[in-house]
Amino acid sequence: MRNLILVGPMGAGKSTIGRLLAKELRLPFKDSDKEIELRTGANIPWIFDKEGELGFRDREQAMIAELCGCDGVVLATGGGAVMRDENRRALHAGGRVVYLHASVEQQVGRTARDRNRPLLRTANPEKTLRDLLTLRDPLYREIADLVVETDERPPRMVVLDILERLHRLPPR
Ligand SMILES: Nc1ncnc2c1ncn2[C@@H]1O[C@H](COP(=O)(O)OP(=O)(O)O)[C@@H](O)[C@H]1O
Ligand SMILES: O=C(O)C1=C[C@@H](OP(=O)(O)O)[C@@H](O)[C@H](O)C1
Ligand SMILES: [Mg+2]
Fold it and tell me: Is the pLDDT reported for residue 1 higher than 70?
């Protein structure tokens, strides 16, 4: 399989664990959100402000298509990447897909400190995260080769679990 792709909700640890996995595997690391920021020279909240969520999703779709065409990279996606059918097809075809699962409670704690997630600038971020997970959990599962729990486990343990389980996956 060509790439190793992380999907899952905000605060699951895709960006953190992707970076550690890439280091461990000595592969390049690409974070879809970071690549969009580098390419546009604007941060994600600014893009949401100026272009709306639709503008961001169009940029995200183009970036996912490009990154899934790479060979041998670890790719962290944004939590909403699975919302479009085109993205799910590209991600599934792009390599092994790992769904990093986190409970809503853990997501709330891990996302509380930074203001970089425009979708969480709501009166009740916990409800937002719960509603999004209800909608997206089946979509993450639809394309995942592996579902990995991240609650109550430090990033290093999550990385070791992924590496061990990847070796045991049957060919697709
Ligand atoms: N397994 C974990 N246990 C505790 N904290 C974590 C874990 N994974 C990530 N974090 C922390 O949660 C926050 C969000 O992680 P991040 O990698 O940005 O998530 P994502 O990219 O999935 O939104 C960061 O502060 C990170 O250090
Ligand atoms: O869940 C989402 O729709 C989003 C998740 C974010 O990425 P992380 O999952 O890395 O926080 C980022 O792409 C954007 O704020 C939208
Ligand atoms: Mg991220």
Answer: no
ipTM for the whole complex: 0.99
On average, the pLDDT of the chain sits at 97
- Known binding residues for ATP are 11-16, 117, 153
Q: Is the CB of 78 under 6 A from ligand 2?
A: yes
Which structural domain, as residue segments, surrounds residue 50?
3-167
**Cα-based distances in Å from 105 to 109, 120, 129, 133, 154:** 6, 14, 9, 12, 16
Starting from the CA of residue 79, give the closest ligand.
2
Answer whether residue 172 is part of any domain.
Answer: no
Strand-pairing partners, residue 75, are 5, 30
pLDDT confidence bin for 172, thresholds 50/70/90: confident
What's the CA gap between 43 and 116, in Å, rounded? 8
| Average of per-residue pLDDT across 160-168 | 97
Q: Which residues surround ligand 3, an ion (CB under 5 A)?
A: 14-15
Structural domains of the chain, count: 1
Residue 79 lies in a domain: yes
Closest CA to ligand 1's atom 24: 110
Give the pLDDT of residue 132.
98
